[in-house]
Amino acid sequence: MNQMIYMDYNATAPVLPAAKKAVMDALDLVGNPSSVHKLGRQAHRLVEDSRNAVMALVGAPEGSRIIFTSGGTEANALSLLGCGRTRIIASAVEHPAVRSVNKKVEFIAVDENGVIDLSKLEAALGNDADNTIVSVMLANNETGIIQPLREITKIAHKAGALVHSDVVQAAGKIEIDFADLGVDYMSISAHKFGGPKGIGALITKAGNPLKALVSGGGQEKGLRGGTENVSGIAGMAAAANASLDIIKNEADRLAALRDNLEKQIREIEPAARVIGAGAKRLPNTSFIVMPGVLAETQIAGFDLAGICVSAGSACASGKIKQSPVLAAMNVAEDEGASGIRVSLGHNNTQDDVNGFVAVWDEIRTRAINANAA
Questions:
Q1: Could you report the per-residue pLDDT of 105-114, keeping only the tens digit for each?
Q2: Quick check: 80 and 204 in contact, CB under 8 A?
Q3: Distance (Å, rounded) from C-alpha 140 to C-alpha 133?
Q4: What is the pLDDT of residue 109?
Q5: Residue tagged active-site, from 56, 212, 213, 315
Q6: Is 83 a catalytic residue?
Q7: What is the pTM of this model?
Q8: Which of 127, 136, 276, 306 could form a disulfide with 145 if both were Cys (CB 3.0 to 4.6 A apart)?
Q9: What is the pLDDT, as a whole number, of residue 263?
Q10: What is the spatial distance between Cα 10 and Cα 248, in angstroms, rounded to a whole number?
Q11: Residues 5-18: what's their mean pLDDT?
């Protein structure tokens, strides 16, 4: 292969041309958005116009608050620690940015497809819901599984709890309607949908309680101190605008590519497993288990062949650790250690899928031969 095949969009998406241009143009703006002179007003106007693009990407109604942050992790922390509720309930498949925000986070079980058990959520809310915020991601970063967020919100609100959703993986891949989902807080990150790294946002309903974690000069209406990352914000807005067309034009195509990839894999190896295949998923994401072959072995083989994918399990101190997401789904540890995540994007083609499948088969065949020797 003469060039790399990138199939790791859930880790980060390549910067879109429009976003790159917006960043470069914004770097030419001299003014500080807090300055009252003409150059400051130009920078301020760019920041404010960018909020509208973020609102459009997630379907936030007019009047919603957009607080720019350093990324999804900070947006998650700002909502969960700044909302005024001291009890946090989260699904058992949340991103570490939510799992580790507080040592007392309570986790709600999911079924074998990774979908939250609504009855257990309802029971867990109990009599302390008025002091509770529920955090459930819209789509999982490892498996792509989509949660019934609208139903979750209804249950939580009925009990008196607030709701936060980390939609970092869903933004730019599927249509999102903040108002329809009914959540109180929503986190996004620009680099997942073709914007620059190091910029994200928290979207909230007007009037929702929120206290700054980082105080300073009163930026972001006193909710996030520090001079705004004007160029990053501009790139995020441009990527958000471009993503509206990508969602409309690419979702079905990517789903077809993913389905074809999984079909080819199953034809080669019927014992191969796609985690969460029975659930509603992002159109671009597939978590595939190659029986008996460690994920790190697969990653190395794909990398040598010029293909970028990710492992589903983390390696620490030379030992494979089960992903908390897979453990929550009752995936056997040996299966989890043999799984990789393939996440497609707008640059991928059927030729890329065919190339991936061919290398997957080569890695599998080598493993079989090595075991037989």
A1: 999 999 999 9
A2: no
A3: 19
A4: 97
A5: 315
A6: no
A7: 0.94
A8: 276
A9: 98
A10: 19
A11: 97
